[in-house]
Design goal:
The chain is α+β, with helices and mostly antiparallel strands. It is built from four helices and four strands. It has helices spanning about 10-20, 25-35, 60-75, 90-95; strands at about 1-10, 40-45, 55-60, 80-85.
Length: about 110
């Protein structure tokens, strides 16, 4: 499975729902959504800065991640961005792949 970081910012409508439901219920909803998609939540935190919530999770693939993001954003309560994450070992592997690149101006 692949790891992803979801960064969420509440809309005014979403903040109203958060006040009504509370953080625990919203965390349960997110966990159920990710598990129903075949994934697993590693951590979920609320914050008060650029983004209102962060979710570190595992998902089966990029298509699943995109599907969740589209569904969440379509609900209009959150603006969500998802970032694929790589382990140090994955970075080691990709740095060894042969790639030809010519910088601009050469």
């Amino acid at each position: 499975m692949a790891r992803f970081l979801l960064k969420a910012s509440y809309t005014p409508e979403g903040i109203s729902g958060l006040r009504r439901d509370g953080g625990t219920k919203r965390a349960e909803v997110v966990q159920a959504m990710i598990e129903n998609a075949g994934g697993r939540v590693e951590a979920l935190y609320f914050a008060f800065e650029e983004h209102d919530a962060y979710v570190l999770c595992e998902l089966p693939d990029n298509m699943t991640a995109a599907s969740l993001t589209i569904a969440i954003r379509a609900g209009r309560g959150l603006d969500v961005r998802i970032t694929p994450l790589m382990t140090p070992e994955e970075v080691d592997a990709v740095t060894q792949l042969p790639v030809f690149y010519e910088p601009p101006g050469r």
